[in-house]
């Protein structure tokens, strides 16, 4: 019963009508059920009585084997239009005579069944013994249809329909008058409440019409309005004072919050830079300094041995060069923190082609293959995107023991796909750039470690470098609000996945 959103008047009328309808339908159903079972019982009694009369009168025909008398007796069933078939079985159980004339013997049971009558589908059929004294001379079979019941039920159905329709109309007009005693006071109360809600006038009062539950509700409503009116005045005055204090305090907090955010951002950036430089100073920069100091002392001790001094000076020169490279790398890394450059459309196809030109000699020397096709145009800092692609291609050319094959592909993926594949929380669509090579690879457990500054998975004697290239890549991707990850296996190459917003 969907009554939400309708008026109280319609709800009351609907409840009354549905209650009346349910009672009428239940009453009619009970009446029909009673009539049905009464008809079945009466029909069985009537057919049993008829069967007893026919069976009793057929004893003579069966005793003298007079089929003509038996047929004449059965033809009297024409007076009962609902008897559709009948037959007499002799003492041996064979069909002796049938009704109506010309009916096939196959219609009847082959042998008489148990005495009595039962309903089978839409028919009532049964057997009645033909007895003379204590001797059973044969059996009568009768089969009656249920058309009388169907005709009676059709008549009852029409009567019930007219009664229900008439009752509904009567209940409808009666409910329209009776429901007003309930709905009118409620409508009045609702109109008063709506007026107060719209105009915020708590001086209005509802009119009391009856001394009943609705009258008590009206009194309670008016009393509530009196209390609200008094409280509203007090709350209004208090809110005005509170709003002034809140505005003042909010302005102070906002100012303090802005100042704290500025200071905190500066501290975070300063701490991050200090951590990176402290790491470099305590590890990578110390190593070439120690070598320079050691070989300088050794050169002083071997002052007379020119060959030995020449060797020491070469090592000092090599360490100084290594230190210079590290300092340059740190400066490049620190410059990436400044992202003041404007973002512009950058065609990565052109970027990769320029890098191919830069590495032309190295590509030719290693007989390398770089495949790229259909790369997107990215909104970003052109110089940094160039540095990103340069580092990845350089690593792919460097860390290999065979002819390098580098494949660069791209596609557009949704934020949901990225979250499912990488666990990184993203928004909107992203361009997925994949740099795949056939190099020496690395153990997948180091996939995040490789993006740490000065982190190397191979010694610098086997593969040259400062250990800052991938850290620069991550810094560039972070500057572009993207994400970078890697998939690799030792000896089977690596694949770097870069996700940049589009």
Structure description:
With 502 residues, this protein is an alpha+beta fold. It folds into three domains: 166 residues, Beta-Lactamase, CATH 3.30.450; 49 residues; 161 residues, Histidine kinase-like ATPase, C-terminal domain (Heat Shock Protein 90, 2-Layer Sandwich), CATH 3.30.565. It is built from 13 helices and twelve strands. A five-stranded antiparallel β-sheet has the order 2-1-5-4-3. It has a five-stranded mixed β-sheet with strand order 7-9-10-12-11.
List the SSEs and their pairings:
Elements: H1 8-57, H2 59-63, H3 67-75, E1 83-89, E2 95-99, E3 116-120, E4 123-132, E5 135-145, H4 147-178, H5 180-199, H6 213-282, H7 286-301, H8 306-335, E6 344-347, H9 348-358, H10 360-366, E7 369-372, E8 377-380, H11 382-398, E9 405-413, H12 415-422, E10 430-436, H13 469-479, E11 483-488, E12 494-501
Parallel strand pairs: 7-9
Antiparallel strand pairs: 1-2, 1-5, 3-4, 4-5, 6-8, 9-10, 10-12, 11-12
Helix pairs in contact: 1-4, 7-8, 9-11, 11-13
Q: What is the fold named in CATH at topology level of the largest domain?
A: Beta-Lactamase
Anisotropy-based shape:
elongated
Walk across the major sheet and give the strand order.
Answer: 2-1-5-4-3
Q: Helical content, roughly?
A: 55-70%
The CATH architecture of the largest domain would be 2-Layer Sandwich
- Tell how many strands the DSSP assignment holds: 12
Mean pLDDT: 79
Number of domains: 3
Count of individual helical segments: 13
Structural class: alpha+beta
Provide the succession of SSEs: HHHEEEEEHHHHHEHHEEHEHEHEE
